[in-house]
Amino acid sequence: CYLNSSELDNAIDCLKRSINIKKDLGNTIGMGTSLGNLSNAYRRIGDYSKAISLMEEFLDILKSNKMYFHIGRALMIHANLMIYIGNYTIARKNYMESIELCKQFDDIGSQGLINRHLGLLEMNLGNHNKAIEYLTKAIQMHKKAKHLIAIEPTTLFLGQAYLHKNDLDKALELVEKAVLLTDRRRHTNQAQNLDEYWTLPSRCVKLLILAKMKKVKIDEIDKIYNEINTLHVEKHKARELWWLAQAYFIIGKKNRALE
Fold it and tell me: How far, in Å, are 142, 178, 250 from residue 115 at the CA level?
């Protein structure tokens, strides 16, 4: 409960106690589950070294008990942690091993997520064609698994891959689709500063694309910038501000970009 409500200090304390209790009881599998959750808690506070160590301990328990279905998913999470510290070689190796295990159990949902992660990995490395290949495959698998909520961000990532490739028309088509897909989750309770928060990433990327196409006005960028600073002031928004800064810079508003 503490982990789900982002009360991470309390979550870490409870999970440590859970591990000790399960260890005393000889419940190795249960201890492993708590180790995995504790790894997630440390990841969320930015302690990637601790998160990786705990996830590797969890993987050792899964492997010693031959729990191959869970090993596949845990390898994917470990690969994600490797991305955070810039170790793309181990990340790719773990993704590939993970996807093969998921195929054995016909876990289409996890295969879709792994293909998404591989697409992001390739995009970070500048391999845009390979990124497009993985992300396109990920969307196909999301649809097959009826993992509808996963389609939205993957569509946005695919649009970004085309943006990096400078195929602006295709990028715009995909990002506009992402806006529409995500719009159904739009919040309208302004008292809680959640209005349109979930559409924010795709709308910011859309502005960046339009700036590159010389089809955006400063007032349009200002509108979303002001929205971020009012409705979403307490929300995560670093990447959105980065996209807006690029858009301002492209249209010649250097001071606004630096701001």
Answer: 10, 18, 32
3-state secondary structure of 186: coil
**By the 8 A CB rule, do 146 and 120 touch?**
no
Length reported for the chain: 259
- Please tell me the distance from the alpha carbon of residue 178 to that of residue 188, in angstroms, as a whole number: 19
pTM, full prediction: 0.88
Q: 144 pairs with which residues across the strands? A: none
Run means of pLDDT, 10 residues per run, the chain, 259 residues: 79 93 92 94 94 96 93 96 96 97 95 97 96 98 93 95 97 93 60 58 94 96 90 80 95 93
| Token pair 């596949």 in the structure block, residue | 72
φ/ψ of 195, rounded to 5, equals -60, 120
Torsion sign, CA atoms 15, 19, 25, 31: positive
Q: From CA 163, how far away is CA 175, in angstroms rounded?
A: 10
Q: Are 119 and 83 in contact (CB under 8 A)?
A: no
